Amino acid sequence: MRYPQGGGLTAERQQFREELRLQAAERFARGEASSVIAKDLRVSVRSVQRWRQMWGEGGPRALRSQGPASLPRLSEKQFAQLEAELAKGPAAHGWEDQRWTLSRVKTVIGRRFHLTYTIQGVRKLLVRNGWSCQVPARRAMERDDAAVAGWIKEVWPCTEDSRRPVEPGSSSRTKPDSP
């Protein structure tokens, strides 16, 4: 399940889920069936079975919340330092043009903080902190309109033809020729 701003359960929701597990633990001790507990607590039977196994191995203490699944790898102070680095621009970090890409931000994070992020992790980090992807307001001065026109005329038609032709098909994948 995905949550807004890339986070997990809220503290209140974590507390609620922990209370459910502890209620189930009391009922495990009384010897109630997993299906009855699941129905009463409005959770899946598989969850109750998993909780019962944890309870059997470690008692009610094993069912306590262990906190958030992960903590942000960059602290707020470090993210402020990252923003200062990004404000210097890509040229200050050795790139020729003035474009910040996710892979470049990933490289800056690695150089500055000695942390490894995935490209999607960098995107989530930036979005979580209020950044958004930007589209240029005008075309780049380096753009070669003749090259773009040539590509559209010569290369693009080849890519269109390489698609599979659209034909009437069958609803059966196993017997495509059946009547």
Describe the overall structure.
- The protein has helices spanning 11-30, 34-41, 45-58, 76-88, 102-113, 119-128, 145-161.
- By secondary structure, the chain is mostly helical.
- The chain is flat and about 80 Å long.
- The model has no long low-confidence stretch (mean pLDDT 83).
- From the spread of the alpha carbons, the general shape counts as flat
- Give the helix proportion (percent range): 40-55%
Order of helices and strands: HHHHHHH
Largest sheet: none
Would you report the number of β strands? 0
Q: Provide a count of the helices.
A: 7
Category by helix and strand content: mainly alpha
Radius of gyration: 27 Å
**N- to C-terminal separation?**
43 Å
> How big a fraction of the residues is strand?
under 5%
Q: Whole-number average pLDDT?
A: 83
Oligomer: single chain
Uncertain runs: none
Task: Provide a short characterization of the protein structure.
With 179 residues, the protein is mainly alpha-helical. It has seven helices and no strands.
Question: How do the helices and strands line up, and which of them pair or pack?
Answer:
Elements: H1 11-30, H2 34-41, H3 45-58, H4 76-88, H5 102-113, H6 119-128, H7 145-161
Helix pairs in contact: 1-3, 2-3, 4-5, 5-6
